[in-house]
Amino acid sequence: MAEIRFSEDEKAQIVRRIRLYFDQELRQEIGRFDAEFLLDFFSNEVGGYFYNRGLSDAQAVLSNKIDELGEAIYQLEKPTEFRK
Known about the structure:
Elements: H1 8-25, H2 32-45, H3 47-76
Helix pairs in contact: 1-2
């Protein structure tokens, strides 16, 4: 798996959300550096779990769509003397 990377804008937004969470939910102030460190930790240590879940979800959606497409194609078949 490739390393999870965020653009500078994405990283800044995530860091702001982390700092806001700490302030509002934990009643603790956390600096930008500490929030970036925490983001890097979660990206490296648990990001793969979220990434893999996303891939699994995407695979399930794709599989369902392929099944639907197969059914739609089957519905288009014309009756003939030959059976499969």
